[in-house]
Amino acid sequence: MRTWSAPEVPSLPVNGPQVSLHNTATGQLQKTSPTGAARLYVCGITPYDATHIGHAATYVAFDLLNRAWRNAGHDVTYVQNVTDVDDPLLERANKVKVDWVELAERETQLFREDMEALRVLPPAQYVGAVESIPLVIELIQRLQETGAVYQVETDLYFSVSADAAFGSVSNLERDVMLSIFAERGGDPERAGKKDPLDCVLWRGEREGEPSWDSPFGPGRPGWHIECAAIALEHLGTSFDVQAGGSDLVFPHHEMCAGEVQVAHPGSTFAQLYAHAGMVAFDGQKMSKSLGNLVFVSALRLSEVDPMAIRLTLLRQHYRSDWEWTDDQLWASVDTLDTWRLALARPAGAPSAPLVAEVLAALADDLDAPRAVAAIEKWVADSNAGDTSEPEAGAVVAKLLDAALGLSI
Prior knowledge:
Elements: E1 20-23, E2 28-31, E3 38-42, H1 53-71, E4 76-82, H2 87-96, H3 100-117, E5 125-128, H4 133-146, E6 149-152, E7 155-158, H5 174-183, E8 199-204, E9 219-221, H6 223-235, E10 239-245, H7 249-263, E11 270-276, E12 279-281, E13 284-285, H8 296-301, H9 306-314, E14 322-323, H10 326-344, E15 347-348, H11 352-363, H12 368-383, E16 389-390, H13 392-404
Parallel strand pairs: 3-4, 3-10, 4-5, 10-11, 12-14
Antiparallel strand pairs: 1-2, 6-7, 7-8, 8-9, 12-13, 15-16
Helix pairs in contact: 4-6, 4-7, 6-7, 9-10, 10-12, 11-12
């Protein structure tokens, strides 16, 4: 699948510190230690509607990680999927009477445009669920060899009990798992399952639904096995960071880890799990079911500066749950105007301490609010008359782009 165009990113005169992230699995801050290229997997969209601010917050957050690694001197291998066949997509296509392939292609293209506008660095591998079906089949066959797969009618299930480490990503009690599983695409009450938490690997063909041939009969992949197979193919086992929204901790990331770890005994899926908080609007988490969505494309079409959107996201720590308001966006528009004045001055406050502070903040669990605060202080000092460094604005402009993805 085609990814989006990469923005030109300036290089900085110094390297940043090694990056530490909060590991969901341990609850602790953990230093990342890439061997060779840093390997990052961020779960992508199910393209049945436009990109909303909650999505954008997640992808901007882990774009900061991509940039922080690069600024620390690492190459980065970034992989992202597109779940371009799944129940929500098929249901939406049926509801609006549009071919599901057409809907998926249209919304995926809109996502690309949104990511380009927000200057999110593109993945090296952007892989759709449909094109990953051969990888899924291969992984299911490996799981069958371990005895971790069983059949219920025409569907294949993964036995979570086969993974001795099951539960170590989310650290949830079983009753909580069962509740969340039912809310997030699981079927804990289905008759014939060995364990209510067992998840679908291969969904047998249903009338009116797309299907593909396989050694297990016609059908299509389950949700979790898709990401597991793509990550395994392009990043291997024990890659550096598995990332996404906090609503993916369970069951999605737990199941992905279990499937790979059972298929490859003795391995770990990822060294670290990082998750972005949820964004609310009008008092509730943004969701398609509630309809309380703020779409990136709608803001762009109303001529809002995409950098103001990005700055609004950067003012929140990526792990925080927070609420979007229009007032925050308009404040960011004003802030950028103020910053542009400071950057345009022939001289400004010293830039070296600012570069060090911003890079240190982002290496410390992607602390973008701390980085933004440091920039605001530099701007205030420069606008107040500190002109001790000629052409400081040019250095700071490069810093804004390279570290925070803000091209102003």
